[in-house]
Specification:
The complex is a heterotrimer of chains A (218), B (100) and C (226).
Chain A (H helix, E strand, L loop, with lengths): L1 H24 L2 E2 L9 H28 L2 H32 L8 H22 L4 H24 L16 H43 L1
Helix pairs in contact in A: 1-6, 2-3, 2-5, 2-6, 3-4, 3-6, 4-5
Chain B lengths: L7 H14 L1 H5 L13 E2 L10 H47 L1
Chain C lengths: L2 H19 L1 H21 E2 L2 E2 L3 H27 L2 H7 L4 H30 L8 H26 L5 H12 L1 H15 L5 H30 L2
Antiparallel strand pairs in C: 1-2
Helix pairs in contact in C: 1-5, 2-3, 2-5, 3-5, 3-6, 3-8, 5-6, 5-9, 6-7, 6-8, 6-9, 8-9
Chain lengths: 218, 100, 226
């Protein structure tokens, strides 16, 4: 990964610079018009966020049951990225909704479960930051519960009616929209992989520093 | 962890029972509205608008860019700080060893 | 020692301690009543309660007083270092979890016996038209809330700022329980009771309880190991 890191960063930067031109070139949607273009960043960040939440949950389980420190470092990196991509989803969503539905917020299942998931992973970060010694195990437990919670939140909110576009819009996208969309998804996932690697590396360096300090004290 | 836990068959039975019991939840899913199933592309956006879409789009993309760049910068600066501290500590250890 | 016997001994210990001082029961009960009263000021207009307010008030009162009871129950264990002693005891760790959970459930059942009629009375809510469904909703919801809460409160015993972290962790996870409880109770309060809807929410609660109790039993051991 270390060898690939720099070239991949260049690729990701290039993709993000190209993305606005592709998005600009994509056709307008018939009922929503220009505002639908938020889609090209909104949905990829949502996808990245859910991927990140699962990465955090699974690596937390590995850490809790196998005790691997590397899994814990990956989990904390994933939790932070869930929070970052989550805030992008939760801010771009209402901006789109304001125009498309006339309101900033509706209690639809996908929106609500995203919000709850985002809250859980922020609780995870709060627990790690303020929980004191040993809180990484407790946070791992929370991440597992948070991951298991997603379908429940989804079902329980689903019984209310919904406005949000279904997931079927993605496979049925028209060619002009499909290209830019998958381009953005790739760019986001690439950025995600790079960011999580860097963040996990940061955590590893911190652990190394901690170890050195401990060895000096002895 | 071993003597109390029911066998694999019993566990499967519990999960199956729970799933069977939960069918009314699935049955209650709201019907799908046609407008949400797919996007229809057109060549031009609507001309008259009560809410300016352009501003919303610009804010959305601006926010996404600022968040992403801000986060990357935060990783980079935190990493730099830790690396500097690591360097300082290892230098101090080297100096200490030479003296000792 | 068998699993059931170990769990039973934990419950008996908690009940005996509580029976002597009744500290947690009285404070939690009073807190729940105070909660309902505060909501009454928020949701009663010109002497008449807002329609549909009752289910929400009931479940928020249960969630808030449940959090308080959980925090106090484990604070007592922490102050006397008894949780550590329990952990050292040569019994299955999950048995301790089941015992603590049963104790909390008993306590919350007593609180509900008081606040459910109180909410029905103060907010003109015909809660008792379908008593069996109401009991099922309360049992399912309280179990789900306490199942997650007992695990989190137990693991937070070792953490700093545990009193504020407990609700921060617990509420997002138990949102499905609150939604199911409130919507299910609301279905019971309609002019013609919506039985299928109430049943659907009850089955959702049962599924939640099963999944989260299994998860808690599975993670209790590693989470409580230092």
């Amino acid at each position: 990964m270390r060898k690939l890191f720099l070239p991949l960063t260049v690729v990701a930067a290039g993709m993000f610079m190209m993305a606005p031109f592709l998005i600009d070139g994509a056709p307008y949607e018939s009922t929503m018009g220009l505002v639908q273009k938020i889609f090209y960043f909104h949905v990829p960040s949502a996808m990245t966020m859910f991927v990140s939440a699962f990465v955090c949950g699974i690596s937390s389980a590995v850490f809790l049951f196998k005790g691997r420190a590397a899994a814990d470092r990956l989990a904390v990196a994933a939790a932070e990225l869930t929070s970052v991509f989550g805030i992008i989803v939760l801010v771009t969503g209402p901006l789109w909704a304001r125009k498309a539905w006339g309101v900033w917020w509706v209690w639809d299942e996908r929106i609500t479960s995203t919000f709850v998931l985002w809250l859980i992973f922020n609780a995870y970060l709060l627990l790690r930051k303020y929980g004191g010694a040993g809180s990484e195990r407790l946070a791992a437990g929370l991440a597992i519960f948070g991951m298991a919670n997603v379908p429940f939140v989804y079902w329980s909110v689903n019984v209310w009616r919904t406005l949000h576009p279904k997931t079927t819009v993605v496979p049925t996208l028209q060619p002009g929209m499909r290209g830019p969309f998958w381009f953005c998804v790739t760019a986001f996932l690439l950025l995600y992989v790079l960011a999580i690697t860097a963040r996990a590396h940061l955590e590893a360096e911190r652990a190394r520093l901690e170890e050195i300090y401990l060895s000096i004290e002895e | 962890m071993t003597n109390w836990w029911p066998g694999r068959a019993a566990r499967a039975l519990v999960i199956a029972a729970a799933l069977a019991f939960s069918t009314p939840v699935f049955a209650l899913q709201p019907p799908t509205a046609a407008a949400q199933d797919g996007f229809v592309p057109v060549s031009r956006a609507a001309q008259q608008e009560t809410i300016p879409a352009a501003r919303l789009v610009v804010i959305a993309y601006g926010f996404a860019w600022v968040m992403l760049l801000g986060y990357l910068w935060s990783i980079w600066s935190r990493l730099g700080k830790v690396e500097r501290e690591l360097l300082a500590v290892s230098r101090r250890i080297d100096a200490g060893e030479r003296r000792g | 020692m068998s699993f059931v016997r170990a769990a039973w001994l934990v419950v008996r210990k908690d009940v005996l301690i509580e029976a002597r001082s009744r500290e947690i029961l009285y404070t939690t009960l009073f807190f729940a009543v105070a909660c309902v009263l505060v909501f009454a000021f928020g949701f009663v207009n010109e002497g008449r309660p807002i329609t549909d307010a009752a289910p929400g008030i009931l479940w928020i009162a249960i969630a808030f007083s449940g959090t308080l009871a959980l925090g106090r129950a484990f604070e007592r264990e922490r102050q006397h270092e008894t949780l550590r002693a329990l952990m050292i005891a040569p019994v299955d760790r999950p048995a301790l979890y089941v015992g603590k959970l049963a104790g909390i459930l008993l306590l919350l059942a007593m609180v509900e016996v008081v606040i459910v009629p109180l909410v029905a009375l103060l907010f003109h809510a015909p809660l008792f038209t379908r008593p069996l469904l109401l009991v099922a909703l309360l049992a399912g919801g309280t179990t789900g809330f306490a199942a997650v809460g007992t695990l989190f409160a137990a693991m937070l015993v070792r953490a700093r700022s545990r009193d504020v972290l407990l609700p921060v962790l617990l509420y997002p996870i138990t949102i499905p329980v609150i939604i199911a409880g409130v919507r299910g109770t609301a279905a019971l309060l309609q002019a013609d009771v919506d039985v299928p809807m109430a049943r659907a929410w009850i089955s959702m609660l049962v599924l939640f309880d099963v999944v989260f109790i299994v998860l808690a039993l599975w993670t209790f051991e590693p989470l409580m190991t230092e």
